[in-house]
Design a protein that fits this description.
The protein has about 550 residues and is of the alpha/beta class. It contains 22 helices and 13 strands. Strand 8, helix 11 and strand 9 form a beta-alpha-beta unit. It binds 6-O-phosphono-beta-D-fructofuranose (F6P). The site of 6-O-phosphono-beta-D-fructofuranose has 14 residues, from loops.
Length: about 550
């Protein structure tokens, strides 16, 4: 079934939300907490190892009811069944969106063109299992019979960010294999990585859904040439694997069919780490941990599919984001994990969220009259506290933020973990409460200042507070919880796309730059420079000189 084409601003709920916003926008979070001593637990959801406290948001129970009404009115329920059911909801590319099928349980049935795809998914998983076990154990060796020590993932966008983020996030669970990522077409990137490698003990995994991406093919060719300085053509079969839907192009490149891992066009690049695109994850942490990651994501899929909206974590987080984006005019959202392991998490979500919901055409092909995709940014705490938190606390912009923390540290350094988490809790409290002029005054009065000094300093030390945050407190950073956390954001993306009446699963916006780059490359390499605006023309002339 096609997704409905409901302009959200025409719904009853939208109108009610506008009115509700007018009536509540000046209420400070401090007042909301003072009025209801039970507010924290009241706006908290618990599921498995997850606790999500969304009480520090500018909401009342009525806000939540109205947001849920909006979700009902745009028919989110039916959209969720289309999503899981494999309908071609990626309409502009004529495809289903079934990354959820990649983590389905064996024996489940998910149909694409009347064919159950779960057996194929499991066949590829078996292949990943066998391959990774042979590489990790040293059973499979390189061209000089030595065991592999290094793995290089060659890919970009969804063929890089997911595996890179997850391998970093699961460093604690890593085996002896060192993983490297080459993505940028910047030749200095690949050269820096190659500097560290021995061709005799390195496995290269070329990951490209289309196998036509300029960056990936250039890097793969450069690496192949480097490899062939020491090895022969037939050794490629021992050292190169590929993940793609394009088997023809892989064969042209010379990779042995036995080392080819298929993927499917119903898996979007930015949602593909659950497929063989995650091969370097499975190599780095072992197949069992990879499977745990998938099982965590499956758990979140089930929660999302089966839980009433008001207790549904992805739905609540998505609707809160809509609340700020469309009623408060917030343009960005920060994602702040209090774990150094998650240092690539917001970079990963930038693709997931912004490539999906950065759209201005609605599903009927009309320009939206309302805001859509939020700008995502963030860095781990506590580092970010010493970098950009000043702006969140005292700047002019409203920046809702997700704080993600863990009850347990992995290495068990209690002293450090307590300090880390003290900062985690302190920041959301500070952002919510702020510091009133009266409080600042009382503090300054202790400091032996003249009245004049006190008065001139006071305004700079006031914190307005009233800054919204969600607190996601998880038990422990393990593969299962990480899988569930990623899936949570995937479903948040989906819900927001449905509300905004846009197509979240295409990415036409990346094409124009690619096309122009092709033309400009020929102009740089051979011919004369063609027609360009005076700025681009002048720049090209200066570059070629
Ligand atoms: O940047 C556009 C994009 O198509 C992404 O959606 C995708 O993840 C990336 O390029 C890489 O594509 P491929 O896996 O086909 O090389």
């Amino acid at each position: 079934m096609a997704l409905p084409k409901i302009n959200p601003t025409t719904t009853q709920a939208w109108k009610k939300l506008q009115e509700h916003h007018q009536n509540t926008k000046d209420t400070h979070l401090r007042e909301l907490f003072a009025d209801d001593t039970d507010r924290g637990p009241k706006f908290t959801l618990e599921w498995g190892d997850f606790l999500v406290d969304y009480s520090k948001n500018r909401i009342t129970s009525e806000t939540i009811s109205l947001l849920m009404e909006l979700a009902e009115e745009v028919d989110l329920k039916a959209a969720i069944s289309s999503y899981f059911g494999g309908d071609a909801i990626n309409q502009t590319e004529g495809r289903g969106v079934l990354h959820t099928a990649l983590r389905a349980k064996q024996g489940d049935e998910v149909f694409v063109d009347r064919k159950n795809v779960v057996p194929e998914v499991y066949a590829v998983k078996e292949k990943i299992k066998g391959f990774t076990e042979e590489i990790i154990s040293g059973k499979r060796t390189g061209f000089t019979n030595k065991a592999f020590t290094d793995v290089v993932n060659i890919g970009i966008g969804g063929s890089d960010l997911g595996p890179a983020m997850v391998t970093e996030a699961l460093s604690y669970y890593k085996n002896h294999l060192k993983t490297h990522f080459v993505s940028n077409v910047d030749g200095d990137h690949v050269q820096e990585v190659l500097k560290e490698l021995n061709p005799e003990t390195t496995l290269f995994v070329v990951v490209s859904k289309t196998f036509t991406t300029q960056e990936t093919l250039s890097n793969a060719l450069t690496i192949k040439e480097w490899f062939l300085q020491k090895a022969s053509e037939q050794d490629i079969a021992l050292h190169f694997a590929a993940v793609s839907t394009n088997t023809e192009k892989i064969a042209e490149f010379g990779i042995d069919a036995a080392n080819v891992f298929p993927m499917w066009d119903w898996v979007g690049g930015r949602f593909s780490l659950w497929s063989a695109v995650g091969l370097s994850i499975a190599l780095a942490v072992g197949f069992e941990n990879f499977d745990e990651l998938l099982s965590g994501a499956h758990g979140m899929d089930e929660h999302f599919r089966n839980t009433p909206f008001e207790a549904n974590i992805p739905v609540i987080l998505a609707m809160l984001s809509v609340w700020y984006n469309n009623f408060y005019g917030a343009e960005t959202e920060a994602i702040i994990p209090y774990s150094q392991y998650l240092s690539r998490f917001s970079a990963y979500l930038q693709q997931g969220i912004m490539e999906s919901n950065g759209k201005s055409m609605d599903r009927a092909g009309n320009r939206t009259s309302y805001e859509t995709g939020t700008i995502i940014w963030g860095e781990p705490g506590t580092n970010s506290q010493h970098a950009f938190f000043q702006l969140i606390h005292q700047g002019t912009k409203l920046i809702p933020a997700d704080f993600i923390g863990f009850k347990e540290s992995l290495h068990g350094n209690v002293d450090h973990h307590n300090k880390l988490m003290a900062n985690f809790f302190a920041q959301t409290e500070a952002l919510m409460n702020g510091k009133t002029p009266e409080e600042v005054k009382r503090e300054l009065e202790q400091q032996n200042l003249s009245q004049e000094q006190l008065e001139s300093l006071l305004p700079f030390k006031v914190f307005e507070g009233n800054k919204p945050t969600n607190t996601l407190l998880l038990k422990k950073l393990n593969p299962k919880n990480l899988g569930a956390l990623i899936a949570l954001y995937e479903h948040k993306i989906f819900v927001q796309g449905i509300i905004w009446n846009i197509f979240s699963y295409d990415q036409w916006g990346v094409e124009l730059g690619k096309q122009l780059a092709k033309t400009i490359l020929t102009e740089i390499e051979n011919s004369t420079i063609g027609n360009h605006d005076s700025s681009t023309l002048h720049l090209l002339q200066k570059f070629k000189k």
